[in-house]
Amino acid sequence: MYDMKWQAPIVIVLPFPDGPQRIGSVREAADCLMDRWPEPDCSFERDEALRICLEVFEGGASPQQAREAFLAAARAAGYVTTVQPM
């Protein structure tokens, strides 16, 4: 379930140098939150999204829950540019 693609990816724009990112699975969301998310953003939404992504890996949450949490974190940080309807 961790590698399962979401029906609708989320496109975000991170501050330089990363630019636009197309996030389409729990693994991609977790990688983005851990490795590419700007360091100063240690918000509740970011931490919650990462926690839920890791719970999917352990079987405690669904990919849809991870997508919703990632979307909330990206919106809170002002990074969302495109969200396709599910």
From TrEMBL:
It comes from the Bacteria. InterPro entries: DUF982. Pfam families: DUF982 (PF06169). This is DUF982 domain-containing protein.
